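As promised in the previous annual report, we have extended the structural survey to additional targets. Below is the entry for Lysine transporter LysE.
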Amino acid sequence: MTVTSALLSFALVAGLLTLVPGLDTALVLRSTVTRSRSHGMAAIAGIQVGTLVWGAAAAGGAAALLAASQTAYRVLTVLGAAYMVWLGVSMIRSSFRRRPDEPADADLPLPTGGRWRDFALGLSTNLMNPKVGVFYVAAIPQFVPDGVNPLVMGVLLALVHCVLGTAWLSLVVLGAGWAGPRLRRSNAVRWVDRVTGGVLVLLGARLATTARW
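The corresponding C-alpha cell record, generated without further manual editing, is:
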C-alpha cells in the first residue's frame, strides 16, 4: 500500500462517515441559523481542529492507550456524556429565558469572544466525544503503509477527514445561512436551540449507557 492509495482508501471511508448526520451537523446548523454563516464556519473550524488532535493522538498512541484501558475509556465516556447533557440542558434553558432581542447564545456558558464561542463549542464537543477517538484507533493502523512514520500518516489522514468534513459542512452552512435570517425574525431560533439541546441530551444519555463499570 502506497501513501496515495492509503489516503484515497481512507477518503472513501471518511467520506461515508461525514455524510451521516450527527452531532457535528447539529452544532453547525445551530450556530448558522441562530447567528450567522461566519459563526457556523467558526464551529466547523473548531470541529476540524478537534479531528486533527484525535488523529495525532491516535497515531501517537494516546488514543490506542485509551482504547486498551477500559477504565480510562469509561472515565472519558462519562465526562463526555455529562458534558453533552450539560450543554444540551443549557441550550434548552437559555431558549426559555432569552428575550427576543438577545443573541441566541446569550446564556450559554461558554468562553466569550464572538465567533470564538462557536469555535470552542465545536472543539470541546469533538474532543469530549470518545467515539471519535475510537474511530481513529480502529482506522489509522489499517491505513499506515510500511516504512511511513505513523504520526505523520495519522495527521495526513486526519487532514483528509478535515477537508471532506469542511466541504460537506460548508454546504450545510450555505443552506442554513439562506434560511437563517428568516428564522431569526421569528421564534424559530428558540426551537432550534431546543431541538439541538434535545439531541445533545439524548446523545449524552446514550453515551452514558455505554460506560458500564
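The chain has one domain: 3-209. The longest helix spans residues 150-184. These points will be discussed at the next consortium meeting with the crystallography subgroup.
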